[in-house]
Give the backbone structure.
Amino acid sequence: MKPIRVGVVCDFREEGWHSMDLIADMLIERLPTVAPQAIAATRLCPPLMRRWSRLPLVGRSARAHLGDRLTGRLWDYPRWLARRAPDFDLFHIVDHSYAHLVRVLPRGRTIVTCNDTDALRTLLPGRSSRFDPSRWLASGILDGLAQAAQVVCISGTTQAQLLAFGAVDPGRTSVAHLGVHPACSPLPDRRADADIAEQLGPPGVEILHVGSTIPRKRIDMLLDILRGVRQTAGDVKLLRVGGSLTAEQRLLAARLGVADAIVELPFMRRPELAALYRRASLVVLPSDREGFGLPVVEAMACGTPVVASAIPALHEAGGSAATYCPPGDSRRWVAAILDLLRQKQCDGRAWEMRRRGCITAAARFDWSAYAGEMARLYMQIDHPSIASTQAS
């Protein structure tokens, strides 16, 4: 039997969506181990052509960068991908925001991973006028999802939210949870741990947040929580990975008196990020919305307790091992964090049991299991390799 040739359609690397890159990287790495004879996967992604950002005067603006991204996604990528359609039996688009590419691929032979429904929110009743460009983009994404042979959601929460739009056949959706990178372990990594220690100096009481600064991540809440914790616990630092604070967020940090307690760190390779998880006293995720909550399971895999928003996706990720607080209620967050910091300082046995519970809970999420689910799905879809084998 010929292996199924799968084109893994990835985000532009230049866009810097690290979680999307991670899904593609781990899928391509693990498929040969779970289905070595059955699947032959190839990464597909053109370079991002820079047009607007090369213009004089305006080229360095955020709008020029956005123009490059939109032109790349809507003009360059479809044309580049369409020429490669005959070379593969099926395609897997790993980011739903690229679902419009389904239109240029063979009908019935494309799978799309849906990571969240944020890109579709402008389609909700009363959210936007019909002339809003973001609504037009969202319509293209939803249409691509509706045409896909299968939509794989990264959580049951995301699946339910997607189906609520009424455009995707429920029978063509499934759930496959993401995995934990092998670097995320409670065991020390001498080199990575030393690199983080060199960057940060001697450890203290440190709260870690991993994620972007977009509104749904509630950085405003995070800063207010930091202020409340410091008022009682003293010298507590916030470590931030996932992009610099916006100008508005910096002003808020200064107004709250916590600007000097924030350490912003650049994008990190997985071993260094795991070292940071291990070093942190706690990981916090006060988001209003999430598709899954990868930092929750990564932190727990490193043995670091998590305080997360009490929203369905994060409950799905953290299970009974995480601590949950109502979104937007900073007083409850401060109280929960202070309780956990006291436990760490005063009750070593209870803290160790909590850490072990986190590690056990995170073990449910495995990239090989994810790749295995994808391989089974690839083999269920009708495509030329299967047809030629049956004919012979």
